[in-house]
Structure formats: structure tokens, C-alpha cells
Amino acid sequence: MKQVITFGEIMMRLSPPLNYRLVQTNNLEVNYGGGDANVAASVARLGLPAAHVTCFPDNELGYAAAQSFQRYGVSMEHTVFRGDRLGLYFLEVGASMRASKIVYDRFDSAFAKLQPAWFDWSNILSNGRWLHWTGITPAISASAAQACKEAIQEARRRGITVSADVNYRRNLWQYGKKAQDVMPELVAGCDVVVCTEGDAEDLFGITPRVDAANRFVSMAEQLMQRFPQIKQVIATERETLSASHNRLKGVLFNGTDYIETPAYDIVPIVDRIGGGDAFIGGFIYGSLTYPTEQEALTFGVAASALKHTVHGDVNLMTAAEVEPVMQGNTSGRLLR
Amino acid sequence: MKQVITFGEIMMRLSPPLNYRLVQTNNLEVNYGGGDANVAASVARLGLPAAHVTCFPDNELGYAAAQSFQRYGVSMEHTVFRGDRLGLYFLEVGASMRASKIVYDRFDSAFAKLQPAWFDWSNILSNGRWLHWTGITPAISASAAQACKEAIQEARRRGITVSADVNYRRNLWQYGKKAQDVMPELVAGCDVVVCTEGDAEDLFGITPRVDAANRFVSMAEQLMQRFPQIKQVIATERETLSASHNRLKGVLFNGTDYIETPAYDIVPIVDRIGGGDAFIGGFIYGSLTYPTEQEALTFGVAASALKHTVHGDVNLMTAAEVEPVMQGNTSGRLLR
Amino acid sequence: MKQVITFGEIMMRLSPPLNYRLVQTNNLEVNYGGGDANVAASVARLGLPAAHVTCFPDNELGYAAAQSFQRYGVSMEHTVFRGDRLGLYFLEVGASMRASKIVYDRFDSAFAKLQPAWFDWSNILSNGRWLHWTGITPAISASAAQACKEAIQEARRRGITVSADVNYRRNLWQYGKKAQDVMPELVAGCDVVVCTEGDAEDLFGITPRVDAANRFVSMAEQLMQRFPQIKQVIATERETLSASHNRLKGVLFNGTDYIETPAYDIVPIVDRIGGGDAFIGGFIYGSLTYPTEQEALTFGVAASALKHTVHGDVNLMTAAEVEPVMQGNTSGRLLR
Amino acid sequence: MKQVITFGEIMMRLSPPLNYRLVQTNNLEVNYGGGDANVAASVARLGLPAAHVTCFPDNELGYAAAQSFQRYGVSMEHTVFRGDRLGLYFLEVGASMRASKIVYDRFDSAFAKLQPAWFDWSNILSNGRWLHWTGITPAISASAAQACKEAIQEARRRGITVSADVNYRRNLWQYGKKAQDVMPELVAGCDVVVCTEGDAEDLFGITPRVDAANRFVSMAEQLMQRFPQIKQVIATERETLSASHNRLKGVLFNGTDYIETPAYDIVPIVDRIGGGDAFIGGFIYGSLTYPTEQEALTFGVAASALKHTVHGDVNLMTAAEVEPVMQGNTSGRLLR
Amino acid sequence: MKQVITFGEIMMRLSPPLNYRLVQTNNLEVNYGGGDANVAASVARLGLPAAHVTCFPDNELGYAAAQSFQRYGVSMEHTVFRGDRLGLYFLEVGASMRASKIVYDRFDSAFAKLQPAWFDWSNILSNGRWLHWTGITPAISASAAQACKEAIQEARRRGITVSADVNYRRNLWQYGKKAQDVMPELVAGCDVVVCTEGDAEDLFGITPRVDAANRFVSMAEQLMQRFPQIKQVIATERETLSASHNRLKGVLFNGTDYIETPAYDIVPIVDRIGGGDAFIGGFIYGSLTYPTEQEALTFGVAASALKHTVHGDVNLMTAAEVEPVMQGNTSGRLLR
Amino acid sequence: MKQVITFGEIMMRLSPPLNYRLVQTNNLEVNYGGGDANVAASVARLGLPAAHVTCFPDNELGYAAAQSFQRYGVSMEHTVFRGDRLGLYFLEVGASMRASKIVYDRFDSAFAKLQPAWFDWSNILSNGRWLHWTGITPAISASAAQACKEAIQEARRRGITVSADVNYRRNLWQYGKKAQDVMPELVAGCDVVVCTEGDAEDLFGITPRVDAANRFVSMAEQLMQRFPQIKQVIATERETLSASHNRLKGVLFNGTDYIETPAYDIVPIVDRIGGGDAFIGGFIYGSLTYPTEQEALTFGVAASALKHTVHGDVNLMTAAEVEPVMQGNTSGRLLR
């Protein structure tokens, strides 16, 4: 079967155990993750072939990062090992009213310095059925943005479904271009877009109409008008009651219908990082597996909810484990 | 003082730390437990003499398992060290809507292959005041069922109170006999039976009368009619709000009166395994210590609630620690 | 800038990881803390100069304890290294209805056996702007009480603000004097007093008037009448829903106005020890930084709430981290 | 490039940390390994494509085991997920005069119960350049022996090099056939055989001639006479000074020449398990990479020596790390 | 079978992991041990019934200490739970030229404050075959010395073998009596005495004769002359090459013959604490099991050597594990 | 007393536990260290006032690094918190013939981007008695080299002793200047220089005379001729037998006399990083404390040998602990 293929940076995440702070511990737990790679890993664990395309330094850190995703069944055969450093970030995990906190150290990574020519998209995508990318990739460097564009173009040529999590992070855009200038061309090539109202406003100047009955639908309509290739706009709506307690639901607009899922109560949260990526991984899996958009969307949100109960960036749930939660069984009764 | 004596298999439990999954960790925590042995350990820690009777392989794993219970003050002097392997199971601990999950690997254990003749019940029970067993033991093998029967018969001869947790697990019955054929003879010898409505239906075809005011009472009445030796039917009623939040109360029918306890809210759950065994251990202790059934039952449920806040299969609470909770003090205020 | 100076014993705290009990673990986590030293550490981490004055045995344990506070930026330059042993205590961390439990082993510590003459308060306080002590110090030994008295007197001479957490612990007073005899003279020298209604009754025989609209105010008024130096009486009011869930607010009476803060819901509690000290540390910082008592008090309670989400006795939050919570942002939303 | 393909059982290894014994720890470290799979992993990490063929239970343990080897770059695409249990063993690590000690629990594993028909060797080996197996596989069950035979036959048909580590373990042969009856037919199909003098005597009744100048050569000559397909007989000679200190050299006879390597002093030993497999993996890599048998053999021994300094069954050294040691640089000088 | 009975204090030992120092770690490993209790545990694990008599505080620390020895099969039924604190010590483990270092915190322990009347030696020893004590016990307090004396007297009355490890530690004798005044009366009641030349000189003023061919024999002869009850004087001779490398042999004089064992090279040392106690435990076991003194002594030294490879104070080796080392097999070859 | 002051970068070191490799672990241990800061920490722990001057990013990582040294008693009051990232490196610890391996990730650190003007050397050194720097500092960036030069000049002006560890690392010099151009001017200002023959040749083109009786002396003579301010040239001579076993001695030439120390055998090595810095810290302490150069040098080497037995970059030995080793007591006998 052909692969779901993702492209983007994978970072090493270093976090104190439990709720310890960096100033008080000498012990860090390592995870490797990236907004797009997490989607590939999620899809692979759910049971569909997946590959991730990235660039790592040619050293033990690069090998460790690649092997971490290989472990979860993601094909890393297209990895380019060149450059100096692995991007990394430090995470302190909060609780109750204390927010989790990230210190990034990702500039000048091997990925940021990749050359577009290192990636032969025609070959890579020859085995693809879906391409997913996030707004973080074009934010990292001009060459990353260029590689992303080439991937999308090749996918379009081949009629491969393209999805994007637009995921606007202002701080990342530091190489001289603005997200507002770069993103439209990339998003224009997408069939599925994950986009919140905030992202839509920041990136595309799109705001829901004042009189909109449903603000998300209003935003999505405008987005689809601007980018006619888009067939689905999706998002999660997250209610953040505390660092330990969130409520999550999924929304989708397909140009005609608005669909939403029940809200899932998540308490306690074990690890919130990668929750959005698990949603997308679940949605892609659901779209390729279930007949209805409602099922795909609910599968995505159930997968995301479950991700919050798992350590690490990657959703380690199988399809058989997501299904009962998708069907509303959230009692967590012991399985013998 | 004479002992509370239990009989059954003890397994090694292997679980990833915290909420890690097996595919992502190289670290497993070991606990030893068994539905009956946990009762003995509970009773011993509460302060009454207790012994457990079992069979272990004659190797380091068997020694470790025996020593684990010896540590908690359970006499293991009747342990038979023979056979090849220790039964074991792997536990992934869930959270929120993610259920905890068990993978068993217990077939062909030393206990399953025991010979009834290895156990001299007359000698063993000469020091007994109470015998407890669970429905897991006769499910394991014909010889385990036979040994269990002999123990019950000897206890009856000696006038020792016999209790059983009928605990029906369909998957376990694989040696060619049905629970429905084996259990009645064993339960017939019991004074106290822990039995849910589901168990009663599955094992004995007993269902509450349609018009029953109290379904539990209706079931218990029929059970006591069928097995006249039974003097008390007890159970816990567990409301599973999530893997991290349960609500628990105890119920008892003694042929005349129905007694129930207040419900205890348990959030967060530290370790749910052994919660039922802690209830029984607490109830046995309570029955031997307190004048009223209400106290015995409430002590049992308070003990069980507290067990959920302790790691491992065994309830490590002393009587002095259970008492305030039994009396309704569930504020958890720091004790200096 | 001049220092906030505290005086008192620092103990080694030994606790099993997570919710393990002492009988089941071979692993203890070490923290160093003391009711007054925690205040100094809190103030230092918030960004103001702080020093702690204490006495340690001249061995590796004393060095480790001193270095632990040095690490958090507390000046330990006045530490006296003399005597035999470091006071210590063992802590089992509860959950839900199970209370956390402390076993103290602090008698005959180096601090208990200090000589008042070892501390040259004139020199020590020459660099001070605030002196804080707790009712634990005069409880430990006659000489500790004497040293405390000398410190207060010197602070008064120098016009340095003096605060006390009266913190009455009956079990501690074992050297032949009663708290009721010792404390009044010491409290008489204080500008700010942390005192609950229970403490006021136990120590000073003060009870709120029967007809009092606000019991705390009534108690505080009487306290200020008795000890005219006092300008502010403060306290936290803690609602203990369970060992994992508390609700906290702060109250203050300044002779004229009663001020209170919103209540902060704390769930789950990561580590409750030092929560009161964090409140005082935050209040001192707030008093020295903010123009209004309301802000100082709210800052203190926000700091205390956050402390409950941090492992160890010491509040490791910076002022920038407390501020949003003080302003009501308790959503715990991930900070990138 | 075509793959080095191995076939055999992978077990979960559970070992207490450091030199702890099973009776004193509640903590086990997990590794997955097997005599043949370790060779594949070794080859993959050295830089050549490798695949392992095996059978796992279709549960979290099987997934974890498969993913563990996937992580190291071994293709697990031919894994069959069927059956009930994963074989496992417990390892206590010795030191000085205390031997490391293994307790096996591997009977009735999914691998033991495999059906030969589950493996389509024609397809599997179509991508192979080398097939390796060990004497453990035919010892496990008749069906495993049959599958092994079919693999060898197919490899012969395709002209793929076949190597075997005859590795005789008396205790394993429990399914009714003797190694002496089963092994000859399998060894007859091999080009390279790892065989000690003890194995040769036990399995084939071959003993060095009394007057032999070199006992290994004498044994190897007879072995090659008996099995004319064999082109190389190799072995390591291990001097066991203590559990913490071994000395290792490699020997080879190719029908004409006897080759040996320098002896490598290994002190301290970090983990001895898999040392022999690392030798074979290194020798296969060396044979496929270096022009001379001397280099291949020395590479193999250097790889094995380095394996002893790495935790786990698998040799995690790259070719670039083995090369200096192969060239005699054993000073272990810090690499910046 | 009757018990080997020991009497003395058990302390909690707290040590940083690996070679960490106290000032740099927040993690301590707990072991419980005592010079005499270690002997009982050693004997129990070797396979003979053993009991230890001691006094613990009636709190979680006392329970944990008692349960730790119960786990290893030592009967703790005579434990008295009274008093305030558990003695403890901190251990930093050295390596190479860095010595391991102990900080004691054992004064005023529950054991030090025991009342002799709490121990009914007639009852306790009614089940005894051997009584062992160490010179540490009478050093702790006058009442401990008195209890020790009463135990010896009762053992003499019953014809039970008495052994003592005189083990002189100057720093411990702080209650107003000198070892030189107390010990002779106690040693006079012993059949077997563990005594080095240094101890003999310090305690009894006995020095080997200047012209002695064998200094140990000369010392032992004088000791036996002074205390005619003594039948055997034994000791280990330890060559301390470094903190990681010792060499050990055993010596014995029985009034007629001098016996010594081969020297055992121990490198690396895993944990040196309890090495002497393991020797005594092994010697007692050997004396009760083997026909010759040579065997008993060699068993003792082999047991001691093995103890150095095991973490914790207690020798966790079974008789079957000591035997090969006793017979000279120190190669540490892997046992499958 | 005035301070020993050091200047340079502090990095976060991340290393897998024990001998694990990065590709196989999810757990990293954190230490903070730097060639010069380690000297300050060493001096502080030995008992003399010390301060370190550096630049950290203004985030949790910078605070943690600063606090780590504060903990060991190093004054960090001159730390500048500015810039983006903390330099870091990953360390895999080898054993036997496997070398330890470092992956650096230190470019563009906050320290590399410091502005010389941020450091007011006149103020900083007003409290100094000794200034120490290493050749790593001027290698990092032009501005770091400039700051280093200004510090040396100010020290010269104030008559403060200046020492340098020239420590040439070719890979580090990447900002456009060569070490050979930058270092001479800096070394010219030094009184004490740590320099190996290799460094002397690489940096200054100085080679021992062909006919030199003592190559070190010949090199040192030429060095002192070139830089007349130098009064002592010192070095350690390290024999690397394996990653686990080194032999170390110290050498010194003072223009007249050649002094050397006995060689110290270090086996096993616990942590080799910082061994050279411990030598310098010990030598500085020795020079300020002992009357003779022989004592200072031997103290330095003994300190360095002991450092190898301690985890982390920093030598955690007190003067009282170094002294016996300095005097030749390397038996590592247990200290009670």
C-alpha cells in the first residue's frame, strides 16, 4: 500500500521527569518529535504505511532521532544526513494553574540549512498517497520553504492528496520573509487544511463575518474561496481548564456541511505535546479508512484525546484502541 | 492467634513506569500479586496473622515472589517450590479515557501444574481461622481445582470460616471443564461469597427478579437459597468515571438485612489493581475485629479506596490508617 | 540591595518517589527545607537578595544542605558548621483520601544545640531589610529561642521589618518551656504576623468574638491590641478537598481594612510541603515590590498556589511566572 | 543492496539494574535479543542492509520486540504475528568471581509454535545476499527446524551464502529429536560455520586428532571433510578470567590456511550477552567489505570486544568505531 | 530445625547511587543492615533457619526495617517496637584510590534505649542452636550491653554455641564505660570468636609474641588462654589494594591447628559493606553443614568474596552459589 | 579572603547513564561544566573563595547552569544573562577499549556572542588574587578573545597571578583567526602555564631539542624564553591504558628545577571529564596553601586522580580528602 508522507524537522525534546523544573534536576528524558513527523508516526502505529522526509546531522544525535521514528514503523529511508546540529527544545511540564513551558534551541539546525536539491520528490512521492506538511517548515528557512513548495507541486502533479496544518508561530519566522508572503502559495496547493480562526486572521487576514452563525464556518468559507483547491477545513477546539485538564472537540467544514464531534474531557493530562498532530494523524487515517467525514473527524479527536494520556510527542495508540473511544467509551475500564 | 489462610497463584506483574507503554520503554517495575495472596497480605498488614499457600518454580523468580509476600508478613512456610515457570502478566497503566491494559502470560505455570497431594491441608489449616480462595484458582487447572476443593473440605471439617471471591473470568477456563460445572461444588462450602450480579448470572444462571426492589438483594437471596452454607453475600459497586476516577461503595446481604456503605470518590487513582482484594482483606479483618457487619463492610470499602492510592497489588495500609477513612475523614489532610 | 534574612532549622527530607510507601521502596528522594529557609529561597528566586542563618553539622550532610540553598541563590555565608546531626524527616506522599504522612527525626540536631553566641546579629542584620522567623524555631530548644529573641531585638534596634509565622506545633515543644510562655515576647517584636484562628487560640488564648461578622478580623484585632507593634495579620485559608485537591485564598487585616484574595483551585497537587512558606515569601516580595496590600497578598497566594505544582519544599517560581497567575490567568496554557 | 537475512527467535530479556539480584529489586531493564537477530542488528548498524525473519505473538510484547529491532534498522517486514507468548529470560549480571546467571522462560513461545508454511522463503530470500541461522532455532521445535531447513534449501537454490553458528545447548532440545540427528542435514548446507571444539564433539562426534599441532584446525578439517559445502570454520577463543574480565581472540580455518587474530583484553565487561553474535555480525560485514579473511576475522573480533562494552544484546557500534580497534587502537582515549 | 539467632541494632543505610557524592545527588538508595542481623540474613538465605532480635521505633521506618529482613527469611518475631528513632548512616561509595565514607547518625536510637527486660531470652533461645553477637552491641548503651550479657548467659545455660565478632570501634563507646571493661565478661562466654590482631591488642592488651612464627596464632593462643571457653578464633585477612580491588583470605586457630584458605581476588568490588558479616554467616553455615573446619572456613571466605559482588549489606547468595567458588571456580563464566 | 577568578564558557553536558549509547536511551544526565569554571568550583570546594565570570542566555537553562556552580560555592555574581542559547555537548561514556565520545553543539552560544564591554574587569578583579583562563575561551569568538585579553591586562595591572591552560583544540578556532596569532599575546601575560609538548608545538612551534635529556624541560625552557613573564610551566602526563584505566603524573619546570610527582594508577575511572581542570584547581590551591612547589604539584595530581572517581565535570573533593592521597595513601580503605 502507498504511504502517507510527511516532511519537516524533527527535534530532540529534553524534559525533566514528572513536574520537576530545570533548575532542580540533573535528569532529562529524551523524546524526538516534530509536528509533521508525529503525524507519520501516528499513522504508522494506526496501521497504514508512512514515511517521513527530513534532514539530520550526520552524528549520533541524528541517528538516534531517525531510529526513534524507525522504531514506530515510519520509513526514514529518505533521510538526508548532513549538517551540524539537531534542533532541540527543553520542556518543563506544568500542572494545575502552572503552564508547561518550552525553551527552544532550534536555530541553525541541519534541517534549517537543507538544500532543496537534496530531496528527489519525484522519487519520494512515487510511493505516496497523501502528503502532509505544517506551517513550521516554511518558517524555518527559505530553503525549507522551497523544499516544501517543491514537494507540494510534485504531489499536485501526481494527484496525491495534500494536507497542511498552517500552525502560525510568529517567533519562528526569522529569515527575512513573512509568513503572510510565503504561506498563501503553499496553502493554495492543499486539499485539507487545519486552521484555527486565529491562524486565519494572522496569516490570511480572514476574519469570521460579524453576523456569522458559526464563526468557524464563516472563516472556512472564506478560506476555501481564497484557495479553491481546499476541500476540507478542520480544527480542534480546545478548552484549557488547567494544565491538567482540557476539553477537546473537532470541527470540519467541507464547503457545504459543518460537522463537529462530541467534546472529550481529558483529565489528568499526561502529556499534551503532539495532541494536535495526533488529531491530524487520526483524521488522515480516518479519511482513508472510514466512509464518512463524521467518522474520520471523530476518530481524529478520539486519537488526540488518547494522545494526551501517553508520554512523548507521538501518539502510540493502535486503531483498535482508538475505536472504542471514538464510539464514546471513555470509562477507561481495565482491559484484561 | 490463628491465621487467615489463602490459596492461589501468585504472578509477577511487569509494568512500565507511570503511563508509559510497552513499545516505548526499556524499564519495567515488578510487583508480585494474586487475587487471594493479596488478601493475605492485606490482612497481615492490618495486623492479623496470615498465611498463603501456593506453588512456585524452584528458581530465583519463585524465591523473589515468595520473599515479596514474606516481606509483608505473610507466612509462606507452606510454599511448594516445584515446576518450571512463574506466571506473569504485563500491565500498561492508563489515564483519563485510556484504559489500563493487561497482557497475561500465565499458562503452564508451576501453580497450574501442582499436584493436590503436595498440600497437606490438615496440617496447613490446623493453624487457621479463616480460609479464602478465588474463582481464579479452579479456573487454572483441574489439579488446582482439586486442591482448592480439598482445602475447602478440610476447612469445613474444622469449622473454619470459608470465603470465596467467585470472580468469573471466561478466558481462564481452558483445561476442558466449565466454570459452571466446577464452581457450584466449591461455592457450596463457603460462608461468605463475594459475587456481582454478572458473576451470579454467568456462573449460576441466577438473575435478579424482574420486580426486585434491590437487584443485588434479589440475586443474593437466590444464591443463598441455592447454597445454604452461605451466610453473607458481599460485593463492591464500582462506578468507572474514567481510568483516573472511580466511585466505590460496598453492599452486603446476610439473608435478612441489606447493608451498604457510603460511596468513596477516588481521584486520582494511583493503582487500581488489587482494589477488590483489598476490599475482601478489609472485610475479613473487619469481621474479625468489629462487632457489626456495617463496620466490617465499611472498613472493607475504606481499605479498598485507600488501596487505589498505593502502588502495587497489595494494600499497604495499617488498621490505624484505614480507620479515619472508614469514619468518613477523606480530606487527606497532611499528618505530621 | 539589602537582604531578606531568615533564621531557623533546615532539615533533610527523605521521601519515596511518587506515592510509594516506605515499606515498599528502596529509593528516597532528598530535599532540604525549613519553614523559614523556604521563605528565603522563595524570595531569592523571585529576585530579591536573601540570606538564611542556621547551624549545620560539620559533615557532608551539612555541606549538602547548605549547598542546596546556595544553589537557589540564598546567601549561606552566616552558616555555623558545628554539632553532630542534621535534623531529618521522612515523607510519604498521599493521594485522594490518603493523607501525606511525616515521620520526624529531628531531635538533638546541630541546630537544636546551637549556642546563641555563635550568631553575631549586629553583623548579620547590618545587611538586612526584613527579618522573618517561624514559631518552630523557639520550639526546638531554649537556645534556639534565645537566638531568635536576640535576632528580633537587633532587628527592632535597626528598624528592620520583622515577620513571624507563629505556626504552633504542640509536639515540638519538649524542652521544658511552653509555647504560651515563650512566644508572646517574641511576637511582640513583630510587624507582620501569620496567624490562623487556631494558632491564636492555642498560643494566646484569643478567640473571635461570638458576634463577629468576620472571625479572622475579630481574632486579628485582638492580636493587634495585645501586640501593638503588629501592623498586619495575614493567613491563608485552605479548603482540603482531598490530598490531591485543595482550594486556597489569602486574608489580611491591617487594623483597619480586611482584604482577601480570590480562591485558587489546586488540582492535582504535586507537592504540598512548603505551600505556606511560599505564601509568606510571596507576600514579603509583594510587600517590597507592589504599592498595595491587595497586590502583595494576591501575589503571595498565587505564589503559594504555584508552589503546590512544584516538587520540593522550595517555591521555584520567578516573579514573571507568578504574575499572570496573580492576575487570574490559571488556565495553564502551554508557553512556547 | 541486497540484505543479510537471519532467522530465529527473539526473546525479551529482563535484568535487574547493575549487579542487583532478582530477590532484591523491583526494577527490570528490558532488552530484546536473539542469537541470529543480534547478527542482523549488528550488520545493520555497521551499515549493510539486514532483515530478520521471526514469529511474534500478536500483542504489545510482540510489537515492542519487533519495533526494538526496527529501531536499529533491521527490516522486520517478514515478521509473522501469531501465537500466544513471547519467549523471555531473566538475567542477573555477575561481577568478579560471581557468574552472570540466566533463568529461561521460553517454552511454548509463538516462535516455537510457528508453521513452516507461514514463511515464503522464495519471496523473503529474493532480496538476500547472505543467510545466517544458529543451532538454537532447530532446537526449539520440529516446525522451527523444518522452517530453518527450508530457508537453507532456498538459499542454496539461489546461491546465497549460508552461515551457521552451531551453538549446541543440550537443555533446549526437548521436542523428541536429538541435535545429533537434526543438525547434520542443516549444517551440510552451510558455507561458513561457527563451531568450537566442544560443539564439534557434542554434535558430530568430531575430536581433534591426538597428534594435532593445532586442535582447532584438526577439528575444522574433519568438519569440512564431513560437510564439503563448508568453506570456512571460525570461532572465538575466550579466556574467562572473571565475570568482569575476559580475553578474546578469533580463529579461522579455510581448508588451507589457519588464521588467528590478536587477543583483546576486555576489562571491565559491561555486558557479555551477544558477544558471540557481534563476532559473527562483524565477520559477515568484514567478509562483504574487506578483501582478506584476516581483515574480516579481525574486524569480527574487534566488533565482539566492543560489544562487551555496550549494554544490551545488540552490538551498537558503527564500522567507523570498529575500525580503529581492529587496527589495534585499544587505548580508549577520549574522542572529542 | 532450630535457629541461628543474632542480636543487635539494624540501621537504615542511605547511599547515593553509583559513585555520586551526597552534595551532588537528590537520590538515595536505602538498605537496612547490622553487623549481626546481616549474619542472620546470610544464614537464612544459605538455607538454615535464622532469627534476629532487635528493637525498632514503632513507626513506618521500624516496620520497613523489620520487613526488609523478614523478606530474606529471617524471623523477626521477637522484634520489640518501642522508642523514637531508627539509627541510620549515610554511605558514599568510593572507587580506585577514593575510599568509601560513612557518616553515622545512630545515637539515641530505639535500640540504644532498649530495656533488657523487654527480651525474654529463655523463650527466644528455646528455639536456638547458635547465638551470634558483635562488639558493636555492648558499645551502644549500658542496657544493650546488659541485654547482650543476658542472652549469652542464657545460651550458655542451654548449651547453645555462642559466637562473637569482637569488632572494636572506639568512637562508638560513649556511654561511660570502656570496651576494655565490658567486653571480657561477654567474650568469656563465647565458643567462637572473630578477632583481628588489632582488636586483640585494643580490647585485651594481647599482642603476638615477638618471636611468633605466625602472629595470628600467637594472638589466638593467648586469647584462648585468657578465655578458656573459646574453641576457635577466626578472622579474615584483607589486602586493600584499592577501594575497587581487595584480596581476602580466612584464618582459623582451634587451639591446635592453624588453618587458612586460599586468597580470593575481588575486582571490581560492587559493595564492600557486610563483607565481614558474610564471612561469619558463611562460617556458621559451614560449621553446621560441613565435616571439617577447613571447609567451614573456606565456605565462609567464599561467601564473603561473593558478598562483595552484591549490592546491600546482606549476602544474597545461596549455598549452591557459594559452593563452586569455595571449590576454586572463580572464573565467573555465564550460567545458562 | 580574595578570590580565585576564572573566565570562560560553561556548557550543559548531556550523557546517557552508565555506558549506554545515545541511540538506545531516553534518559540523559545533566552536568554543567567548563574548563575554567571547573577550576573555580574545585578551588571553592577545597576551601578558598572563588568566582567565575561568564555569559548565559536569560532563560531557565542559563539559570540552571549558574545555580549549578553557585551550589558548589562559586560566586556567580558577575554572570551576564544575555543572548540566545547555552552551549552544550553530548557525552557517551566508554569502557575498556571503547573510547568515550563527545558530540559538541556549542556554536553561537550566548558566551560566543558576548560583548567585551559587558565585563567590568576592574571591578571584578578588585576582589581577585588569581586569574585563570584556558585556550578554549579565545578560540570561541573574537569578542571572547578580546574579553580574555582585557581580563589578563587588568590582572597584570593589579599584580594578580595569571594562569592559563593553553589547551589547543584545532576544531574550535572557526571565527577567522588562528590560535597561533591570538594566543601568544595572551600567554605573554601569564605567570603559570599548563602546556603539553603537543600544545607547544602546535601553538608556538616550539619542539624539544633533539638532544634534550628531558623533553618537557626543554620545551618549558623555550616557552619561558619566549614569554618571560612565565614562572612555571606545568602539565600532567597521562598514560591511557584503556578508557577504564589511566596512569597520571604531574610535571613542573620553574626555570631552574624540574619536579615530578609519583604516578597515580586510576582504575576504574568513574568520569574522566574535568580531570585536567581538577589538576589545575588543585595546583592553584596547593600553590596558595603549601610552602613548596613539590607539594602544590602533588596536591594537584592527587586532586586530579580523585576527580576521576567522581561523577561530573567538577572535582567534589575537600582538601581533607585530597591530603591522604597526596601523601600516598591510595588504598581506598573504608572510612567510618
From TrEMBL, chains A, B, C, D, E, F:
Residues 1-315 form the Carbohydrate kinase PfkB domain. It comes from the Bacteria. One of its GO terms (molecular function) is kinase activity. Keywords: Kinase, Transferase. Signal peptide: none annotated. PANTHER family: 2-DEHYDRO-3-DEOXYGLUCONOKINASE_2-DEHYDRO-3-DEOXYGALACTONOKINASE (PTHR43320:SF2), SUGAR KINASE (PTHR43320). Belongs to the carbohydrate kinase PfkB family. This is Sugar kinase. The lineage of its organism: Bacteria, Pseudomonadati, Bacteroidota, Cytophagia, Cytophagales.
